[in-house]
Amino acid sequence: MPQTLYEKLWQDHLVHQQADGTALIYIDRHLVHEVTSPQAFEGLKLAGRKPWRVSSIVATADHNTPTDHWDRGIEDPISRLQVETLDANIRAVGALAYFPFRDPRQGIVHVVGPESGATLPGMTVVCGDSHTSTHGAFACMAHGIGTSEVEHVLATQCLLQKQSKTMLLQVDGRLARGVTAKDLALAIIARIGTAGGTGHAIEFAGSTIRGLSMEGRMTLCNMAIEAGARLGLVAVDEVTIDYLRGRPFAPKGAQWEQAVAAWRGLHSDADARFDRVVEITAEDIRPQVTWGTSPEMVVPVDACVPDPANEADPVRREGMERALRYMGLSPRQPIREIRLDKIFIGSCTNSRIEDLRAAAAVVQGRKVASNIRLALVVPGSGLVKRQAEREGLDEIFLAAGFEWREPGCSMCLAMNADRLEAGERCASTSNRNFEGRQGAGGRTHLVSPEMAAAAAIAGHFCDVGELLGRKEKG
Amino acid sequence: MDKFVCLEGLVAPLDRANVDTDAIIPKQFLKSIQRSGFGPNLFDEWRYLDAGEPGKEDSLRRLNPAFVLNQPRYQGAQILLTRQNFGCGSSREHAPWALLDFGFRALIGESFADIFFNNCFKNGILPIVLPAAEIDALFVLVEATPGCRLVVDLEQQQLRCPDGRVLSFVVDSFRRECLLNGWDDIGLTLRHADLIRAFEDKRRIEQPWLFA
Questions:
Q1: pTM exceeds 0.95 for this model
Q2: What is the count of structural domains for chain B?
Q3: For labeling, which of A122, A270, B66, B127 is most exposed (least CB within 10 Å)?
């Protein structure tokens, strides 16, 4: 019977299945960070259990780590304790690799996994972090888990799971100038809603997806969770294989050939059936900007803030009204007229080298607008940072008035000192615009790196495609 | 994990959709390395008028009188009634830990986000999914009935209302068993340790690059 990619991955990891369909699924890669693991390690110890396979573990500190003054260490004592607890746990237990605070390879766990080759096609990848869906870009069954499940994986190398339904997101055509994987992700969420993917594994397919780099595919799969799907998937092709060749933990020599041959089968069969199919035409997508407090509250940059009065459903209408109050916006206000206070380029969604190159191309030879109090670039990892510096991107950002920081999650969730103050408005390349996400009372607008860069220059939102066009003519 | 068999408790209504995990427990409280103590900071930004920080004495903070859980009639609630997509966002188990620590043992909503839903069962919290029309009716009932208490009967998979109405719900059979018995998942899985080891040995031969 023809199978979807998800069904193939499921079958390949199935250890045991109960009569009611609950399955024991084997976990190949366990990514660990400091926030969601301490209670799991403690639970393991209290129960007198040993980790099943420590060589499955790749760990790094990312959520709490500061992005400047690394010489001073972590000044917040509570954050420091959490990071030191991870140090101690990994020291006690072991791991395939650990990139602690200030290690040259430290960074956001979802950037570090793929760039080190620790994420390989066909793996199950889990982490106590919802954006683990990122790794689905490599045809991995990858999803976030809670701390109890972190402990479960440590102790048993397995998870108890029910098979998800499948959804095919078929995207065909060419993305216009200035339209990125981030805009595609936001347009998909606008279409299906933040609960549209609940209970489903989403496979992204079609000519547009084939045309995306691995960085773009990671951005897209990263945002699958914002559409409600625990996991997103992209089939293996030459782009995947080219990306992985020569990575530190990727197989070498004869084993590489053997692996590549296996990976080439990681796609849905031509006549596989999905529970739901959604079709998107790439040419229809414009650069996107969120206006509210949920990623589904999003419109194209040339549109206006929607009017709740036009919403028939009372729960949705109230949600819109509450979001507009929180965001300090009025119905029918043009998106282009929204003025900003801060710019954040970073996060597991958009902090890879390609994101930084794209933002730098917009910024080059320009200055950050005078109303912008802080424009931050936070590379996803130490390796991304050094690559960008080799290419001179840091100089471009610094010359324009951006700050060039050390890697980490930073202002995506503001667990460290990088945050919005109440009422501050930010163009952010991160993934969540929830109330308080970037700091209590802070107002987040989600955009692509290019759009964030363009907003930094203009001081308000503008169509980066137009800005780039003008630059070329000029 | 505590068993969940049958609970009779006060219901509090949280009448909004898409309540995310950042709202349930803001990020600054995730710095804790404990499993408990999150209750005072459940819905922190909605519950208090001032900003919360770890280490701050919450009993001295100004409560937001407009927030539903601060109203006298809902004190001591053990059942939370909500709308669609409750628990969306991050995988933080601190969200169910905060709900449990505050006193909630059951949640009733139109839908729940996948990871959050799963995390609830690992902590002895029962999330119940009901159709929109029944959720609407429950909001009306709770609003109109001061001290409204529901009986949540997991064994019978029934919700019994004070007006005599009985609503049926369905819980996945394995999860139901685990809750009814308070079973430890890890202990259950380790009964299959031989199967896991055999699977792993085979995998190591077939796909050795996964075990580098």
A1: yes
A2: 1
A3: A270
